[in-house]
Automatic annotation (TrEMBL):
It catalyses: shikimate + ATP = 3-phosphoshikimate + ADP + H(+). Its cofactor is Mg(2+). Binds 1 Mg(2+) ion per subunit. One of its GO terms (biological process) is amino acid biosynthetic process. InterPro entries: P-loop_NTPase, Shikimate/glucono_kinase, Shikimate_kinase/TSH1. It is found in: Cytoplasm. It comes from Glutamicibacter creatinolyticus. Belongs to the shikimate kinase family. It holds the Pfam family SKI. GO terms for molecular function: ATP binding; magnesium ion binding; shikimate kinase activity. Substrate binds at D31, R54, G73, R130. Catalyzes the specific phosphorylation of the 3-hydroxyl group of shikimic acid using ATP as a cosubstrate. Keywords: Amino-acid biosynthesis, Aromatic amino acid biosynthesis, ATP-binding, Cytoplasm, Kinase, Magnesium, Metal-binding, Nucleotide-binding, Transferase. This is Shikimate kinase.
């Protein structure tokens, strides 16, 4: 199983879907699986808080099988999830701050970025707290800056295929 990890807006959901198509395999996104049974992410955060969302994320990651699985940016925080991720091939989508700023300007459904600090400032804080974990888990790290979805897919595909040969 290939897992995509990385900060919010690095492209895990978008690249994951395209990668699964290129590899002719199945695709799921833990956020989408959670939303199907529990309602929207902003609603879960507002009604039950982040820890409850993390509990749902743990249960979902444990129970979900797909050729390619996109995770949410904070899924790496829970040790149970890191254990699951280590059993598969982990692709880390690494993103620079300028790309984050451009993409987050259009983001509306990420409750952890809301608040008075401003979206980019919050993104920066979360990334600072998580970057070492992303790096530690990664079997393959791909910098997304300046690359199209198709270019990223080709890059990942090349590495994944040569790693399993
Ligand atoms: N390589 C890319 N080039 C340009 N835009 C991208 C690329 N990857 C993702 N995006 C866009 O960035 C935004 C965030 O992507 P998304 O897949 O939701 O990220 P994540 O799941 O990591 O939060 C979306 O609007 C998506 O269309
Ligand atoms: O980084 C995070 O803590 C989160 C990332 C989101 O997923 P994306 O990384 O796909 O945006 C989603 O799981 C939730 O809003 C929390
Ligand atoms: Mg996503």
């Amino acid at each position: 199983m290939i897992y995509l990890i990385g900060p919010m807006a690095s492209g895990k959901s978008t690249v994951g879907k395209a990668l699964a198509k290129a590899l002719d395999t199945t695709f799921l996104d833990t956020d989408e699986v959670i939303v199907m049974s529990h309602g929207s992410i902003p609603q879960i955060f507002a009604e039950h808080g982040e820890e409850h969302f993390r509990d749902l994320e743990v249960a979902t990651l444990r129970a979900t099988q797909a050729g390619v699985l996109a995770t949410g940016g904070g899924a790496v925080l829970r040790p149970e999830n890191r254990e699951v991720l280590r059993r598969g091939t982990v692709v880390y989508l690494q993103m620079d701050e300028d790309t984050a700023a451009r993409r987050l300007a259009r983001s509306q459904d990420r409750p952890l970025l809301a608040g008075e600090d401003g979206v980019l400032q919050r993104w920066r804080q979360l990334f600072a707290a998580r970057r070492d974990i992303y790096e530690d888990l990664a079997d393959l790290t791909v910098m997304v800056e300046g690359k199209s979805v198709n270019e990223l897919v080709a890059l990942i595909q090349g590495h994944v295929i040569s790693a399993t040969r």
